[in-house]
Design a protein that fits this description.
The protein has one domain (5-279): Alpha/Beta hydrolase fold, catalytic domain (Rossmann fold, 3-Layer(aba) Sandwich). With 285 residues, it is of the alpha/beta class. It has helices at 42-49, 78-91, 104-115, 142-150, 159-173, 179-195, 199-202, 239-248, 269-279; strands at residues 5-9, 12-19, 26-30, 54-58, 97-102, 120-126, 226-231, 253-257. The termini are far apart. It contains 9 helices and 8 strands. Residues 25-263 form the AB hydrolase-1 domain. This is AB hydrolase-1 domain-containing protein.
């Protein structure tokens, strides 16, 4: 297992881990809202590292062992989280990296690439959107919205209740749910809870951020290779969000994951990992 490394980015401390050799091309993984680096599965990272990649994963602010703020009072913006990704590269003395972002992490990856195109060798955008709540793109499905409407926050001091809450959230994002996925998710949720400096902040503060930027009209200016990976049954960002991304980023490649929701389950890795390895082997356009 890799070990935690604490790095200073601006006025905050972020916890990060690496897989692979420091001399290999770097791949930076950016997680979704409220997600610590634990949601990038160790086996997923190791498979990428085995293809001669230096894989970097990290805890966002307010997740895992990184700096945290009082629940409901995040002292940062969406743009700050995007800048953190470049700060992680600085800390590891990585000039350019292949950036992979999932959900909110995919949005942060787009913003980071627009602001720092010289630092991003390629983009892989998984289960994300060019602009949440865009009027021309479909909203969250009724099924998932119904879950949001009735899901009550747990007692954040009750470990078992928090784990149950996380598992229920993850189940709502999927297209199918198996007993094996229940076990894997429950084990992961327990790890996340135990690693969280403040578990309430980690599950509330990213949704309390203000000043969300608009960047969709700038996507045509991206010049690095882009791979858009999207599940055909994504309930949070329906497939049309991925189609829009692939259409609006010049020469982007679209990979549809049949029967997959807002997730990156292990059953999709045999499709996704070879695609990512091929994509991150491409020469710059």
């Amino acid at each position: 297992m890799p070990h935690d490394e604490f790095i200073r980015v601006g006025d905050t401390d972020l916890c990060a881990q690496t897989f692979g050799r420091r001399t290999d091309p770097a791949v930076l993984l950016i997680g979704g809202a409220s997600r610590s680096m634990d949601w990038w599965d160790v086996a997923f990272c190791e498979r990428l590292a085995a293809a001669d990649r230096l894989v970097i994963r990290y805890d966002h602010r307010d997740t895992g062992a990184s700096s945290w703020y009082q629940p409901g009072c995040p002292q940062y913006t969406f743009a700050d989280l995007a800048a953190d990704a470049i700060g992680v590269l600085d800390a590891y003395e990585v000039d350019r990296a292949h950036v992979i972002g999932l959900s909110m992490g995919g949005q942060l990856a787009q913003i980071a690439a627009l602001a720092n195109p010289e630092r991003v060798a390629s983009l892989t955008l998984i289960a994300t959107s060019p602009q949440p709540r865009a009027p021309d793109l479909p909203p969250t499905t009724e099924r998932l919205q119904a879950h949001f409407d009735i899901a009550a926050a747990p007692d954040w001091t009750d470990r078992s209740a928090v784990i149950d809450y996380i598992v229920a959230q993850d189940r709502a994002y999927t297209a199918t749910w198996t007993a094996d996925e229940e076990t894997v998710t429950r084990d992961r949720a327990a790890l996340v809870v135990d690693r969280s400096a403040c578990v309430e902040a980690s599950h509330t503060n990213h949704y309390a951020m203000r000043g969300h930027p608009r960047w969709r009209d700038q996507l045509a200016g991206l010049t690095m290779p882009a791979l858009v990976v999207h599940g055909t049954h994504d309930p949070l960002f329906p497939l049309e969000h991925g189609l829009a991304l692939a259409a609006e980023i010049p020469d982007a490649t679209l990979l549809r994951l049949l029967g997959i929701g807002h997730e990156l389950p292990q059953r999709s890795w045999d499709t996704v990992i070879p695609a990512v390895i091929h994509h991150t082997s491409r020469k710059d356009r």
